[in-house]
Design a protein that fits this description.
- Helices cover about 70% and strands about 0% of the residues.
- The protein has about 90 residues and is an all-alpha fold.
- The N and C termini lie far apart (about 110 Å).
């Protein structure tokens, strides 16, 4: 049948209660398959959030790099000095 790791079960219940503000008694009342589905959904949501955070961090890093004064100065072209011919007497 099923083998359940009790330590992992308790840890998951703790995280669910803390993060989703669900009472432990509500989790206890769930059928086990419902609990498993909920865990799968939570894991999927966490993965999506991690990917979004990673993308945001990459975007912010690229923005920081583009706004760096050193990079801005190197990308700017300095106007060249005009050549002036002074007549000799």
């Amino acid at each position: 049948m099923y083998q359940v790791d009790v330590r992992n079960l308790v840890k998951n219940k703790l995280y669910i209660c803390r993060d989703y503000h669900i009472q432990p008694s509500e989790i206890e009342r769930m059928p086990f398959y419902e609990y498993e589905y909920m865990l799968e959904d939570i894991n999927q949501i966490n993965k999506e959030q991690e990917e979004q955070n990673k993308q945001q961090n990459e975007d912010m890093e690229s923005m920081r790099n583009s706004m760096n004064p050193k990079n801005m100065m190197s990308s700017m072209k300095m106007p060249s000095m005009p050549k002036i011919n002074i007549p000799k007497f």
